[in-house]
Amino acid sequence: MDQTTEHKIILEILDGNPQAFGILISTYERPIYSLFLRMTGCTETSADLAQETFMQAYEKLDQFDPRRRFFSWLYAIGLNKARDYLRRQKAARETPLEDCQANTGNDAGSDIRKEIQDRIDGARILQVLTLLPLEYREALVLRYQRDLSMKEIAQALGMSVSGAKMRVHRGLAMLREIMREGAHGKRD
Length: 188
Fold this sequence. Notes:
Layout: H1 3-14, H2 21-40, H3 43-59, H4 70-91, H5 108-119, H6 122-129, H7 134-145, H8 150-157, H9 161-187
Helix pairs in contact: 2-3, 2-4, 2-5, 3-4, 4-8, 7-9, 8-9
């Protein structure tokens, strides 16, 4: 969805048509859910956090800056929710997967997992991505999976464009190093 269309929908919502928010939900529910699935590994938790993200975005829609893309703003809300969730899990000394049953059924969760693996260059890179610190993983996913510009990444992560470029660059360097170490380890 382009920025002009997003802004028209937002104006419609702010003018008293809350049903128009459904268009934004249907457009962005998969990438937001995927964000949480990558972070938590749990379909139930991911669905709950995605719902909370959309509710918060709706409640704060009047604070949205129309010079930004809605997705960048929404994603930033989601990232904050994910970080808060992971901090709470760490503080409770629980892993995010402890309360979560493996989902092997043929449902939306497994479809999204397959989509994530297909979009990122194979299962090995996905596995290696999870080894990266969260801030670098976020930047790489925004750049190479969501295809956001550096300016949009900077907005989503709340940093300068040069900071976003550096984060993507360092994330790629870390990814290459881990892949290289893995390749050397297999030969030994």
